[in-house]
Amino acid sequence: MKQATNTFSLAVLSLFAFGLSAAQAQSTGNMPNSNPSSTPTTSSTPSAMPGSSAIVTALANTTLLNFLHHMNNSEISEANDALQRLTNQQARSFAQTMITDHQQNEQQVSQLASQKGISLYTYQPSTVDIANDSQLQTLSGPNFDFAYLNLQLSEHQKALQDLKLLQSQVTDADLQKLISQTIPVIQKHIDLANSSIAGFQSGGGSSPTPTQ
């Protein structure tokens, strides 16, 4: 769960970084050199590649919307699965909030993707998603509740970090507005996860059994 979002975010951010580097290099006449020991070739008369800035913009827009698309679908799926097993009422309320909020965000993402002509890939859980879910399957009761909340906390903290990075790259006004609306929601989820975890630690829920 936690590492699944991290794996996807690293992939899309790496893709964006590569595309950005290539587009910037093309705009100055310098292409990225795959051999660090060789001397970079510099054009004596650099000229901007037509449309290079548009390429960077389009890549940033596509990266952002697919990042949010993956995050939303992952959170909705994880929360639905967790609700089948969560026993603590505060944890169950948290999971339901994840479904409601991420469904709303996904509607915005889908609408903007359609308006901007951006394709959203078909969501599938990553191998790390599956591995983390398998690990949770070994837990039950308070141990499962506590593990789910901790994974959600870490997951949303990383998502917030990546979203702020993308915010610095996206220039489209509509997508900037989406980011400004999404960041407070992610922060709310972090706060909810923290308060739910604190509930366990203060005795508000059944204490998880320490692992040996």
Could you explain the architecture of this structure?
The chain has one domain (2-25, 52-201): Ferritin, core subunit, four-helix bundle (Ferritin), CATH 1.20.1260.10. It is elongated, with a radius of gyration of 21 Å. It is 72% helix and 0% strand. Mean pLDDT is 79; it is low at 1-7 and 18-50. The protein is built from 6 helices and no strands. The chain has 212 residues and is an all-alpha fold. It has helices spanning 2-28, 52-83, 89-116, 127-136, 141-167, 173-201. It starts with a helix and ends in an 11-residue tail after the last helix.
Q: What keywords describe this structure?
A:
elongated, 0% strand, mainly alpha, Ferritin, 212 residues, 72% helix
> If helices are DSSP runs of H or I spanning 4 or more residues, what is the number of helices?
6
Largest sheet: none
Shape: elongated
Overall SS class: mainly alpha
Topology:
Elements: H1 2-28, H2 52-83, H3 89-116, H4 127-136, H5 141-167, H6 173-201
Helix pairs in contact: 1-2, 1-4, 1-5, 2-3, 2-5, 3-6, 5-6
Task: Give the gist of this structure.
Helices cover 72% and strands 0% of the residues.
